[in-house]
Amino acid sequence: MLYRSLTVLSLCIAQFICIGFFGEGLVSILRQDGFSLERVGALRGLGLFAVLAFLWSPFIDATALKIGGYKKIILAFQCLTLAILYAVSLLNPRDDLPAVIALAVLLAFISATWTMTSNAFFIKISNSSNLSFTNALKLSGGLIGHVSGNGLTLVIYAKFGWSEANLFLTSLIAVSLLSLAFFKEPERVNAGEGLDFRAMFGFFKGKKAWLSVLFVQSIGICAAFGLLSPMLVDIGWKLEDIGEVLHIYGTIFGFAGALAAGFAVKKLGAKRAFLYAVAMQTLGILAIWLPIGGWTDRASVLFASSAAYAVYMAQATIISTMMMQRASGRRPASEYAVQSSLNMTFQIFSFYLGTLLAGTLGYGAVVLGAAAFCVLSLVYFIKIYKFI
Asked: If 16 and its partner were Cys, which of 3, 102, 145, 376 is the partner (CB 3.0–4.6 Å)?
């Protein structure tokens, strides 16, 4: 059980750390070196591969059916990632920017496909009793990986240099590769019929209530959660203090929220735990109002950000668990990916909407509006509970 948990955690840290570094950390490096926003802006779009990954997910299921599992596919992606990181380490981001960006785009594609394959792998190695805990580890590992890529790797670059930063990324992926290499994948093979796009696009037939959940549940929390960083800048916090509160303490409380959600699903069931999480989201969103209302001391901001991270990660864990429950053993990569892509699209939209509205209405109005929306969505979810 411990080895299985460490394998899941290391996989998720490894698959997100490169995106954290090349999607955000590298932007900071290039801006510091005087590159224009136009030149580095393409790096911000690396996350789009995760949204579009469902388009090629049937190929993953078909390949897994042919070779008997997902583990070999993941190992292949890890080896490719190590090779690309070695190539990147030989370049200089200042002098070889086009080549670095091209390889970063390739890494983003591999990372998105690797993540999609891992989700199918997690479905295959989990059962109804440990699926929620698997998702808690998955979301926690993803958060740790993203923060490490955007934070810790950036610190290593600042102190030691470009090659050493890439060596750090390489070492984490190598650890994940070794852990997975000795992990025994269950022998049961999915019973799909090979490449089947029609089945994937027909997944939501008869699931309109669940489709509405994927859309609605992210709006309130994402609209408010995305305001944390710009809000702290506007109230006068230093960047290093924001990084400490959001990326260190936020990660700790996010990890705790994910684990708590995993245990709640096991105790209450996913649907009931989901309703409780939506109710807790309302309180977490209202906590963000504290700095807006003038409570800008360290303790108040720490409480607000920690509460927001905890409820955000808790809800993400439960939704991921419910998506995996609805993905059959026949085409787990495709069926999870199509749900995840739609949910992620609405999350991105909600993050953008919250920031846009805050520019015109103010932070306070958006936070209170997001909390009110969570209450209304809870009423809606209760109404459609038996159809979810």
From this structure: 145
Residue 154 maps to a domain:
yes
From the number of C-beta atoms within 10 Å of its C-beta (0-12, 13-18, 19+), residue 194 rates as exposed
278, 381 contact by CB (below 8 A): yes
Phi, psi of 36 (to 5 degrees): -70, 160
- Would you say 373 and 220 are in contact if contact means Cβ atoms under 8 Å apart? yes
Closest-CA residue to 316 (of 48, 1, 12, 3): 12
Here the CATH number for the domain that contains residue 39 is: 1.20.1250.20
Residue 35: name the closest of 104, 90, 95 by CA: 95
Read off the amino acid at residue 370. A
- Domain extent for 7: 1-182
Q: Is the pLDDT of residue 180 over 70?
A: yes
What the block records as the tokens of 199 is 């089945």
Distance CA 364, CA 195 (A): 49
Whether 177 and 213 map to the same domain: the answer is no
- Are 155 and 21 in a shared domain? yes
Is the pLDDT at 264 greater than 70, yes or no?
yes
More confident residue, 246 or 63: 63
Q: Is 103 in the same domain as 233?
A: no
Task: Write the CA distances from 137 to 133, 245, 254, 320, 345, integer angstroms.
Answer: 6, 22, 11, 11, 23
Question: 146 φ, ψ to 5°?
Answer: -65, -45
- Among residues 388, 358, 149, the alpha carbon closest in space to that of 247 is found at 149
Cα–Cα distance measured from residue 91 to residue 112, given in angstroms and rounded to the nearest whole number = 23
Confirm whether 149 is domain-assigned.
Answer: yes
Residue 341 confidence (pLDDT): 92
Q: Which two tokens stand for residue 357?
A: 């509205």
pTM of the model: 0.89
Domain co-membership, 104 together with 245: no
pLDDT of 280: 94
